[in-house]
Every structure is written in C-alpha cells, then in structure tokens.
Predict the structure.
Amino acid sequence: MNGRASQTDSARAEASARQNWDAGRYARDARFVSDLGIPVMELLGPVSGLRILDLGCGDGALTERLAARGADVVAVDASESQVSAAAARGLDARVGDARRLEFENEFDAVFSNAALHWISPPEAVVEGVARALGPGGRFVGEFGGEGNVETVRRALISALNARGHDGAAADPWFFPSAARYRAMLRAGGFAVESIGLVPRPTPIPGDLGDWIETLAGSFLAVAPETRRDAVISDVRDAVRDSLQRPDGGWTVDYVRLRFAARLA
Ligand code: BEZ
C-alpha cells in the first residue's frame, strides 16, 4: 500500500489543493517534466486530424507539440497560472477541474502527462474522460506510479512528523500500482491496451530544495513559513546518501505508470 493506507481521497485532494503552481517557477525547475513526456506522446501514435484533450496540460509544452503534429487540441489545467502560460503559446487552453469534466463525446483521444497523481478521487477522472471520448476513443497517459519519488516522499513525511506536523496527511500524491489503475480503467469502461511501471531515475536541474519548493509545496504548506527551510534541509540530509551524485547534483527516484486504454 506504499505507506499511504490511511490517506483518503478527500485528504489527498485537500493536500493537493495546497500546492501552488507558478508557471515561471515551473518552467525554471521542472522543464524536464515535459521534455521527458515524449515517450508517452509516441504511445498516442499519429495524431494528425485527431481532436485531443490534453488533461493537466501544465504550461502547454507538450500540447504545443501535439498541435504541431496536426492534432486539434484542447488543453485543460486547474492552475490559472499554467493555463495563462499555455494560452500564451496560442493554444486553446482552459481552466478546468479534471474531476468534473463537462465534455461529452467530443474527443478521439485524451492525453495526460505527469498530472493524474495530483488529482483525487481518480475514479472521477476516469469517469469524466470516458464521457469526454467518442466511441472507441483512447485514453493515453503517464503519471507517478507505485514507488514514485519514494525516497523524497518518505523523508518529507518524516521531517514534518519530527517537527510536530502530520506528514502523511500532507501527502497529495496518488501513485497506484499497475494492477490498481488497470482495475480502475476497466471499471470506467476501458479496455486496457498496455499498462506498466517504468522506473526512471531522473537527474533534476539544480538543487533538491528547488525541486521540493516547486513540486512538493503541499507538504511544505503545513509548516509555518519560518520552518520550511529547516524541513528542506532535513530532507536533503536524509536522502543525500541515496540521491546525491558525486558531482553534487541530484537524481530523484521517479517511477512512471504508463498506460494506453480504449473505450470498450
Ligand atoms: C511526477 O511527475 O511523478 C511528480 C511530479 C511532482 C511531484 C511528484 C511526482
């Protein structure tokens, strides 16, 4: 159960809502997220002429690539800052909640990269995606799977617990096993074409502290601002032996869950 048996969907959703997305900061510290999303885009196959929903589009870096390949893309994200950045690329980008999608029978495919682990309950997402697709439509994506960034996640929880906070309750992430997500897709009416975990240790640009501030802000948010640097410092110390490279940089233990499914 990956240490999160007690974290309910609603607690995860609350924790996720504490995450602050700043498109400028994201572009600086997390550009690698979209750069590494190319393999999942390839899983979509040829997209020219297809109408595609990019769910959790972030700043639209991958949406732009889909559009450049001839797809007619609508991009949705919950963050106004990210949607503004995506719209500035000339994309049809809209603020929206992936748990309450209002599209019906509109798309040939729904694509999602590095977003679904932020959104609970996941069943609501699968349901909305199924509704948004036309008959035989595909749902293709990748997000954090079981064991994703586990070393950092554990260290964050421990550092918060040690300072009197409930670290597990601050955890916003849904990182399922392939079996669990396969079952969810099937329950949502999909035939699963492929699904599996892909371990992908990932060198990050810059310091681990920047990664934590940009991508794990939900954890930091439960500590007073004056203590956040100390939490980051505790985490850095705890994971140094496992994640710091001899050159001083950091490689985080990412594990992707990559899947392709078709509406049955
Ligand atoms: C991910 O893409 O797997 C990820 C991003 C931010 C925080 C945790 C995981």
The longest helix spans residues 225-243.
